Amino acid sequence: MRAFVAAAIGLAFAFALVLAITAIGAPPGETSPKPLLTTVPEHP
User: Fold this and answer.
1) What does the chain look like in DSSP terms, one character per residue?
2) What sign results for the dihedral spanned by CA atoms 25, 29, 30, 35?
């Protein structure tokens, strides 16, 4: 029974954390126009 209560509390805390982060929203700013490197440069 204790494990069930602990799991329920943990799940509620995780849900509240996700809800709080969602409510705050993304930080202001712009994305970089430069593309990211997706491959490793070849060595000569």
Assistant:
1) -HHHHHHHHHHHHHHHHHHHHHHH-PPS----SSPPP-SPPPP-
2) negative
pLDDT band, very low/low/confident/very high, at 44 (cuts 50, 70, 90): low
Summarised one tens digit per residue, pLDDT across range 1-40 is: 999 999 999 999 999 999 998 998 877 878 777 777 777 7
User: Sign of the C-alpha dihedral, residues 27, 28, 31, 37?
Assistant: negative
| CA torsion, ordered 23, 26, 29, 32, to nearest 10 deg | -170
- Our measurement of the distance from residue 15's CA atom to the centroid of its chain's CA atoms, rounded to an integer in Å, reads 13
